[in-house]
Inverse folding.
């Protein structure tokens, strides 16, 4: 029963940290919209925290640039366990428009997120709609329950 | 009163004020959400989601705390480990003592002791000190910055609280919280008799709870999370518990000193009805505080100090003078 | 307290009686009254009847999400939704209107599982070159080209042109070049 309560509490109050890893900022705007009145994520008890130490869910947007790759890894290490990583947007998943398939790799990218840290949930879209992001967060909750 | 009784009463009062704190904090979140035309944490979860997300979210802060207590705790290697762990616990102990003194609807034996008001104000002073300590030893620049801001802010908000509280003590002619409460049932609540001091104390409490215009130490876009930045997991859970207790103790202080602690004239002070009115009055006070929380942007630290000197402290001094005048005109009103 | 703050508080209290939050689980995007459903660009859908497999969508795709692979006599068009930016250029360029974007935008997936759900695939048959036996163009594309050419010609020339094309379209480009003289069906012959 104690484990049950523990799992319940984990699912009922996930806190989100949003890491922006380059890119065009559009996913960030859509993510901000998730916490605005229209798609209020606080209904589910979810809060946006500005601190990786307080977070349960790490949402990463943007293709990871070389400049930010070490910081991103550090942010991931600072999130206490159990944690779930959500890659939000095409860039975070595959590099999107920054990773054109013309034979040459982009000199500014340290690759999509999966090269650096393990991803649990993917939210495709450019940018993903807020509904899509909410769905992704709900999937992340299920992952969180299992961990 | 022997020791066993004391410990039992402290435990009961602490847990009661913890539950009240949870409800108050839920109210702050819900009301500020509704005022921003959001929905806030669900009071009743929609039917299709009940299986996965529960039936009600009124205990949302409790879930936060349980989750944090079950999480991994990271202690930075450059922090002073013992002090870093001790700081939230010191604050917790101070708040356990404080919540034993603040009567919930008249139920607290400790509050009938003389000078219990002074003891309460001292214990409440311990909380920001522990907060500053935790930030300073965490070796994070944000923690140190937040600690400095809290130290500045503390000077500003403690003054109106102390002046206002002692004004009520002067009107009742006693330093005991219970006697202040009884004196109000004999005359009128001090909110009506002395609104100046009441407003001053309320504004001080808003600063103490770090609600919106004065959340400078925890300003998330400026200093990440202030002194709490490096805390995570179980220690953050203790800090959240402290927040709940502080909310209910400060609200209780206001209700006890200015609204007769829920006592209704003519009824016995020790009755369940008093507890009910105490809670309702507490909810009202929190509603007013969260209205202020929502409708104001954050002040800068220098603006805050200036504003506190200009408005609440002057109001508190006016309240003090008004209490003198009142005592002179209507000697029967005050005990 | 100044007048502005009083107005603000009044507005806030008004707000509290009219929350604008959308329901969750969400109503489908196109069913909501305030959002124009046609503008939403979500998961792709090939029209099996109309798509000829010409590959115009691949050439305009700005993020390289559309790939075309020929294996044997089958051509597979694959759209990787996790790379796609949903700009809709593939839909706009498609000559046969064989590719549509539906309003399904909830594409979130657990990472690494059911990979196929983030891929939209469509396969078309290729035809053989009569001369050398290599696969050339999709059968449907050949039909579409013939229809399009014939519909633009004068009525007097339709018969002879269609007779020429019957032969001409059976060959791959290389064979055409080498055989055009012997067959007497030069592509630049004027009708």
């Amino acid at each position: 029963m104690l484990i049950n309560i523990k799992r319940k509490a984990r699912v009922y109050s996930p806190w989100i940290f949003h890491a922006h890893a380059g890119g065009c900022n559009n996913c960030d705007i859509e993510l901000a919209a998730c916490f605005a009145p229209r798609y209020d994520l606080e209904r589910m008890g979810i809060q946006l925290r500005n601190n990786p130490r307080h977070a349960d869910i790490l949402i990463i947007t943007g293709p990871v640039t070389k400049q930010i790759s070490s910081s991103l890894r550090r942010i991931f290490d600072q999130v206490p366990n159990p944690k779930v990583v959500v890659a939000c947007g095409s860039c975070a998943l595959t590099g999107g428009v920054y990773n054109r398939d013309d034979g040459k790799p982009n000199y500014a990218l340290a690759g999509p997120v999966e090269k650096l840290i393990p991803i649990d949930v993917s939210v495709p879209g450019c940018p993903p709609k807020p509904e899509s992001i909410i769905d992704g967060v709900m999937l992340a909750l299920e992952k969180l329950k299992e961990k | 009163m022997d020791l066993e009784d004391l410990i039992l009463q402290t435990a009961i009062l602490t847990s009661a004020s913890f539950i009240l704190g949870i409800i108050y904090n839920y109210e702050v979140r819900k009301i500020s959400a509704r005022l921003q035309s959001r929905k806030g944490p669900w009071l009743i979860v929609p039917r299709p989601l009940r299986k996965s997300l529960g039936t009600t979210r009124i205990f949302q802060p409790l879930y936060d705390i349980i989750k944090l207590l079950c999480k991994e705790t990271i202690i930075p290697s450059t922090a002073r480990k013992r002090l870093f762990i001790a700081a939230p616990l010191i604050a917790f102990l101070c708040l356990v003592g404080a919540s034993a003194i603040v009567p919930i609807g008249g139920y607290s034996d400790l509050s009938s002791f003389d000078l219990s008001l002074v003891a309460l104000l001292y214990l409440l002073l311990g909380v920001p000190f522990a907060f500053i300590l935790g930030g300073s030893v965490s070796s994070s620049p944000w923690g140190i910055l937040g600690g400095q801001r809290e130290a500045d802010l503390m000077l500003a908000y403690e003054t109106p609280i102390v002046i206002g509280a002692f004004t009520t003590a002067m009107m009742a002619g006693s330093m005991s919280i219970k006697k202040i409460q009884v004196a109000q049932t004999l005359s009128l609540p001090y909110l009506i008799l002395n609104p100046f001091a009441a407003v001053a104390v309320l504004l001080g409490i808003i600063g103490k709870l770090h609600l919106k215009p004065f959340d400078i130490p925890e300003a998330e876009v400026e200093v990440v999370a202030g002194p709490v930045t490096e805390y995570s997991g179980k220690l953050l859970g203790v800090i959240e518990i402290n927040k709940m207790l502080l909310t209910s103790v400060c609200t209780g202080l206001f209700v006890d000193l200015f609204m007769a602690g829920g006592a209704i004239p003519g009824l016995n002070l020790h009755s369940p009805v008093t507890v009910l009115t105490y809670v309702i009055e507490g909810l009202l006070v929190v509603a007013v505080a969260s209205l202020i929380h929502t409708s104001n942007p954050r002040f800068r630290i220098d603006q805050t100090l200036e504003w506190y000197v200009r408005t609440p402290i002057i109001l508190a001094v006016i309240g003090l003078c008004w209490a003198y005048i009142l005592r002179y005109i209507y000697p029967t009103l005050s005990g | 307290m100044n007048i502005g703050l009083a107005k603000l508080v009044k507005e806030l209290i008004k707000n509290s009686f009219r929350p604008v939050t959308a329901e969750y689980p969400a109503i489908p995007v196109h069913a909501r009254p305030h959002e124009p459903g046609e503008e939403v660009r979500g998961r792709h859908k090939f029209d099996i009847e109309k798509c000829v497999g010409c590959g115009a969508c691949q050439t305009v795709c700005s993020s390289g999400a559309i790939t075309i692979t020929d294996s044997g006599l089958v051509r597979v068009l694959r759209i990787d939704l996790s790379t796609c930016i949903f700009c809709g250029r593939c839909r706009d360029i498609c000559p046969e209107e064989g590719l549509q974007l539906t309003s399904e935008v909830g594409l979130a997936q657990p990472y690494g599982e059911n990979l196929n759900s983030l891929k939209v695939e469509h396969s078309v048959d290729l035809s053989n070159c009569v001369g050398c036996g290599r696969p050339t163009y999709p059968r449907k594309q050949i039909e579409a080209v013939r229809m399009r050419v014939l519909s633009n010609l004068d009525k007097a020339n339709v018969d002879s042109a269609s007779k020429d094309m019957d032969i001409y379209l059976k060959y791959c480009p290389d064979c055409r070049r080498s055989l055009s003289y012997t067959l007497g069906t030069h592509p630049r012959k004027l009708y």
Remarks:
- Chain A is about 35% helix and 15% strand.
- Residues 79 and 87 of chain A are 15 Å apart (CA to CA).
